[in-house]
Amino acid sequence: MRKKILYTFLLLLSSPVVAHDLEGINLDLTRVIFDSQQNSASIKVNNFNENKSWLLRSWISNYSDDGKSKSFIITPILYRVLPNESIQLKIEKTDDLLPTDRESVFRINVLAIPPKEISNDKTSSKPSDLQFAINSRIKLIYRPHKLNETDKVNDAFKSLKILKKNEYISIENATPYYITMDNVKINNKKVTSIEDFMVAPYSEFKIPTQNAKSFSYTTINDYGGKKPIIDIKF
User: Fold this and answer.
1) Structural domain includes residue 1
2) Which positions carry the signal peptide feature in this UniProt record (predicted)?
3) I want to staple 60 with a disulfide (CB 3.0 to 4.6 A). Which of 72, 86, 102, 203 is the partner?
């Protein structure tokens, strides 16, 4: 008798829309902004699938190394969401050790695990034996209250200083905000060698390149929308 093997695939998705397109799981936000004066924040998980329930496992991780965050918790950690049901996840801060002069960033993870389908045929290897776990990941941005001024947040991208160096393009961020760039192109060709164009506060981001004659990009706002394209000639 052959042993049935269950394969589990973890799909790390940066966009909740993709998760919805796959199996009906959807997050109602693309990022969460957590003001330091808030007691909590929330995000809704929707199951638009009419036939399938999912077991949700939620956690908050560090952005840089995926280790479990010590600064935030999310509840409920485990929840079974039924077909056409929604659940509100609550995010709470657990300490006051984060910097007060700049933003901090984390990841919200929502792993959706489908129920295992039971078959009476122990030798079966039908496609139904494949179980897909979908991990939707979005940013959690902690923003000190004194920095949460709409005009300054919206205009932060204007302070980016972009310079052409010998073997790279330098992007300097002199603001206390994380600035996410998108649709980055050098010489009208999209840059695909870097997955995450997020420039940290008070830091420099380098894009290795040679013979760059033009550089274009857009930036993402607090709601996941895109700013107008900026085109720079060197």
Assistant:
1) no
2) 1-19
3) 72
pLDDT band at residue 164 using 50, 70 and 90 as cut-offs: very high
CB 199 within 8 A of CB 159: no
Nearest residue to 126 via CA among 24, 1, 6, 11 = 6
The answer to whether residue 2 is domain-embedded is no
How many distinct structural domains can be found in the chain? 2
Q: Residues for the chain: how many in total?
A: 234
Say which amino acid occupies 97. L
User: What residues make up the domain containing 219?
Assistant: 153-233
Whether 129 and 190 map to the same domain: the answer is no
Rounded (5°) CA angle 13-172-153: 65
Residue 129 has pLDDT above 80, yes or no: no
pTM for this entry: 0.85
Which residues contact residue 5 at a Cβ distance below 8 angstroms, ignoring those fewer than 6 apart?
129
Does residue 176 fall inside a structural domain?
A: yes
Q: Are residues 140 and 175 in the same domain?
A: no
Tell me how crowded residue 229 is: count the other CB atoms within 10 A of its CB. Answer: 12
Q: What are phi and psi of 17, to 5 degrees?
A: -65, -40
CA 28, CA 142: separation in Å to the nearest integer? Answer: 19
Q: Over the stretch 143-161, which tens digit does the pLDDT of each residue have?
A: 999 999 999 999 999 999 9
Residue 115 shares a structural domain with residue 216: no
